[in-house]
Amino acid sequence: MSAPARRDVLRRLRRRPLGLAGLIGAGLFVVIAVVGPWVSPFDPLALRPETLQPPGPPYWFGTDDVGRDILSGVLYGARVSLLVGLLSALGAVVIGVAVGVLAGYWRGRVDAVLMRVTEWVLVVPQFLIVLVVAAIFGADLRLVVAVIAAVSWPTTARLTRAQFLALAEREFVTAARSLGSPDPRIALREILPNALAPIVVTASLQIPAAILSEASLRFLGLSDPSRLSWGGMLNQAQNFLQQSWWMAFFPGIAIFLTVLSFNLAGEALNEALDPRR
Fold first, then answer.
1. Is residue 27 one of the residues assigned to a domain?
2. Which of 74, 129, 187, 241 has the most CB atoms at less than 10 Å from its CB?
3. What's the pTM?
């Protein structure tokens, strides 16, 4: 990206203070996910006699029904939630871009078949598929990531196809064809880099959706109890909502702020990377 283009991006970002706050918040949660387990004040899985302690020193977020520190659990659980979100979005983008490139550049029967498959995937509620697979095969973290990615790619595929259809007849593509460049090179080296901006925006909006799906699974009890996560903490807090509000409040607010930050960040990226703004 050239220096003038970078200045335009920063100028458009400054016009969206909420979006800029979302970008900062999303970055902060990523940092927490990376360093959280090392800066947590206690072992998040250690059981202590101080059960159901309200927030206060030394347990600033209180403790749960078996004496685990809520603050340490929130810091540790950020890694699981964000890992699912980031890996699921990455998988969905890889599948969606591959489908969109094939459909948008080669068109014809390839486009017809791939778009029909895309429509079939879009028809079925995504979370329902994730829920059924987790209930049948178990909610192993790798399986959850794979299933969420496998049902989340159609949006990226349709967007990529639309970008390729719009760019396929541009002058730089025609020039590449006239020079004898092979089709894969034209698709991947000439068109795809010019279509990346909206794809990045779509990926940033898929992250919070994946985080919510993972949290919902764990809230419903479809989770590995040995792997601490925000949704699992909410599931454990269900029976203590009246007398120990902090057990649900802090993991719940962590999910809310993370999802809000990534959504605002996605809107900010959409504003900043769109040259028409």
1. no
2. 74
3. 0.85
